[in-house]
Structures are given as structure tokens and as C-alpha cells.
Specification:
The protein is 32% helix and 18% strand. By secondary structure, the protein is of the alpha/beta class. The protein has a domain of 148 residues: TPP-binding domain (Rossmann fold, 3-Layer(aba) Sandwich). Strands 3-2-1-7-8-9 form a six-stranded parallel β-sheet, sandwiched between helices. The longest helix has 14 residues.
Amino acid sequence: MDKIKKLAEILKKSKYAVFFGGAGTSTDSGIKDFRGKDGLYKTNWKGYRPEEILSIDFFVAHRALFNEYVAEKMSIENVRPNKGHMALVELEKMGILKAVITQNIDNLHQEAGSGKVLELHGTLKDWYCLSCGKRADHNFVCECGGVVRPKVTLYGESLDGEVVSAAIEELQKADTLIIAGTSLTVYPAAYYIRYFQGKNLVIINADSTQYDSEASLVINDNFANTMEAVVKEMKAVE
């Protein structure tokens, strides 16, 4: 049985599947990943390392440069969900997929139509004023004169405890966990998959990961193409 058919069979038998995704799930939408060969972290910007720019200390000290970098290198304006995102929505409609846990901050799962999305690192679709609390789905200058920032977790900050708790709860309930588009090297997020105690761990990633030996199925291929093919296979044999 080829791997697409095997994953389709796994999902058809699943009662509670959960999806855990990283930057590689959004590359087909035109968003660069971080650690890939052409990722954002491979190139310095105006003499700064991207990891330095995306830290709370840099935001406090150089807010204008931070905002410039985000606008230039991380813009999610005009990006659209890809066929992988849409395949996950189809799995939800089938009653198989119960939750999406994402390390991404691009809001593409919600735009695709996924119902339960837990964003471990926040989203660039939510900016707020630290003084008055005004919010918008993009950066803005607040009339109160307060500092505006995106609701994302920067280096040096802790993840949102409520989101983390909800993600762990979903992982503990899952009988199938699909991990895609992540090297599983980013902590603490990568650690959370240890809470999964279900039957089938599926990893979809272009490169190998440290968890491959623990997986029921490993597919070293493109996330969007794989998930589209799996859903087509499932519908073909209904």
C-alpha cells in the first residue's frame, strides 16, 4: 500500500484526529519558512539576525525597525490558503479532524475555514495598543499615543498559557496526530507532542525529523500536495 492510501486508511479509522503544523504548511501560499534552505533565518537584515529582530528586547529598543522588518519580510497581506489548508477543512467536515494546532502566525487555517485553531505563537492578524487596548487586524498608529504591537510571542516571551493548555488537551484526546511542515526543533512547542499517546503518529515533512523513528507513517513530501491527494483518495473510496 502506498503512503497516500495508508494515510487515508488511518484517517478513515480515526475517531479524533488532530493536526500540528509548522512553517512548511504555508510555503505553498507564498510565505517563507524560517529554517529551510531559503528561509528567513538564513539572511541577516540591515546587520541584524532575524532571531534578534523578532525578540521582545529588540521590539522595545528598536520598534520602528521591528515594524519595518515585519512589513517587508513577514507580510501576510494578500496571501491565501493553499490546497493543504483546504484539505484539512474537508477532513473536519467529514468529522475526522477535531483541531488544528499551529506554530504559524499567518491566520491561513482560519481563512480556509477550519473551526478550532490553536495558535501557539499568536497571529499577525491581531495588533493592539498596550495603553488603551484598541485592536486591529493590521499595524496602526493609535490616537492615544500608546505603543502598538502584534499579538505574537516574540523571543524572550512565554507562550499563552490558555492556548498551551488547550493544545495539550487536544493532543491527549487524539487517536491520530498528523504533524506537518515542521522540523520539530523549536521548543517548547515541539515538546508538546510528547502529550500524544494515541495510536497513529504521522509526520509529513520534506526533511527527516528527530521523531521519525517513533512515527507510524513518515511522508517526506510537500504538505499541500500530500493532503490534497489523501482527501481525494478518501472521497474516491467512500
